[in-house]
């Protein structure tokens, strides 16, 4: 696919989706001008194949590959919903407060069931009861893949279901997340009990919006985040925008240092999915979202990481300090990612030898890109 074909396909996909989320008839001529092979590739890369398939069907175009993507997304939604209810019931019975996060909530704002694709479900739980949470999950047939992480434990079942059970929403180990960590470590004060429940919770519309923005910003500043994030913002504001307490939002966005980012998201998502012309600056921002894919890419991750670490200092000594920190890890990062070595610090020399060798074997291209990026970095 050439660059011109890629751009044309992305624009066409956005147009199809915009008709769908606005409840407008999908123009058949808009769909027919698109190459379906290219459209499938682009929509999959952005985790938007199910809603694209839905738009194509509305235009009277059927393709077995798209039909399968939509069916698969719907099956996954059913399975996630059923399992999440089982988990919630068990947590409720044990007196463990919890609330579903992100896609598990935002999916209900999409125009039809199963159109918001998800690879996992996230649930925030009482961080002091994570051993009991593990009992619940393993009692439901899940295998614990990661336990004791500062932010979340990871569970899998049948190679289809992945649940991340959070003890916290953000980590204080990364500079970007520190303000969020301080803010969201007090989230219990913002929880609202579901009707008829004592321990099953949700957030107000305003606080849920603030959280999805915070989560998106984290990804935006690391490896980037894709078009689905903009679509999430758009469908949420479509349903809830008119009733949001704007005064409260302004105050909380200021605390989170997200005022400008929220304005960018709101404006870009609104213009994009109502097919308005973008300014040159907005088009540049859109390109960043498009090129990030759903979960970001390594190139953006390395660029953003180096930019934050070097803080516009392009001297040789600054670059050497950065590389030393990348090799000789310590503190919260060490504790979060290598807890064994954190507890047994006398073994750290072995880790400092092992990590670079492992990186060279498993991710040689990524390391080469990072080294080239650091060498060429200019303020």
Computed Rg? 22 Å
Largest sheet strand order: 1-2-5-4-3
Proportion of strand residues: 5-15%
Which range best describes the helical content: under 10%, 10-25%, 25-40%, 40-55%, 55-70% or over 70%?
55-70%
Class from helix and strand fractions: alpha+beta
Cα shape: globular
Low-confidence sequence ranges: 295-303
Sheet of most strands:
5 strands, mixed
> What is the string of SSEs from the N terminus onward?
HHHHHEHEHEEEHEEHHHHHHHHHHH
The end-to-end distance, rounded to whole angstroms, is 34 Å
Number of helices: 19
**Mean pLDDT over the full residue set:** 86
Number of strands: 7
Describe the overall structure:
The protein has 379 residues and is α+β, with helices and mostly antiparallel strands. The chain is built from 19 helices and seven strands. The strands form two sheets. Strands 1-2-5-4-3 form a five-stranded mixed beta sheet. A two-stranded antiparallel ribbon has the order 6-7. The longest helix has 30 residues, at 64-93. The protein starts with a helix and ends with a helix.
């Amino acid at each position: 696919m050439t660059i011109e074909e890629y751009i044309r396909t992305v624009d066409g996909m956005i147009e199809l989706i915009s008709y769908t989320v606005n409840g407008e008839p999908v123009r058949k001529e808009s769909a027919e001008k698109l190459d379906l092979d290219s459209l499938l590739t682009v929509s999959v890369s952005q985790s938007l194949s199910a809603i694209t398939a839905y738009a194509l069907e509305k235009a009277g175009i059927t393709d077995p590959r798209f039909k399968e993507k939509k069916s698969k997304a719907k099956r996954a939604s059913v399975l996630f919903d059923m399992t999440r209810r089982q988990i919630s019931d068990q947590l409720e019975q044990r007196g463990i407060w919890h609330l579903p996060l992100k896609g598990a909530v935002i999916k209900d704002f999409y125009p039809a069931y199963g159109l918001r694709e998800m690879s996992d479900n996230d649930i925030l739980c009482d961080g002091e009861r994570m051993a009991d949470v593990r009992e619940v999950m393993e009692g439901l047939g899940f295998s614990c893949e990661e336990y004791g992480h500062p932010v979340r434990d990871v569970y899998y079942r049948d190679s289809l279901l992945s649940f991340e059970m959070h003890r916290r929403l953000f980590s204080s180990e990364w500079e970007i997340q520190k303000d969020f960590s301080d803010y969201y470590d007090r989230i219990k004060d913002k929880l609202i009990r579901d009707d008829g429940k004592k321990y099953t919770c949700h957030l107000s519309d305003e606080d849920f919006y603030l959280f999805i923005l915070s989560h998106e910003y984290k990804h935006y500043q690391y490896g980037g985040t894709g078009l689905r994030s903009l679509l999430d913002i758009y469908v949420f504001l479509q349903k809830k925008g008119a009733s949001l307490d704007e005064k409260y939002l302004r105050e909380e966005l200021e605390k989170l240092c997200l005022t400008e980012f929220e304005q960018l998201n709101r404006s870009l998502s609104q213009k994009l999915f109502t097919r308005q012309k973008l300014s040159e600056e907005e088009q540049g921002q859109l390109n960043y979202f498009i090129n990030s894919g759903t979960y970001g890419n390594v190139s953006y991750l390395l660029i953003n990481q180096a930019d934050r670490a070097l803080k516009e200092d392009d001297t040789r000594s600054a670059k050497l300090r950065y590389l030393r920190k990348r090799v000789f890890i310590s503190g919260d990062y060490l504790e979060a990612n290598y807890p064994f070595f954190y507890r047994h610090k006398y073994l750290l020399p072995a880790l400092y030898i092992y990590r670079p060798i492992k990186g060279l074997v498993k991710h040689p291209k990524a390391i080469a890109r990072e080294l080239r990026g650091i060498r060429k970095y200019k303020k």
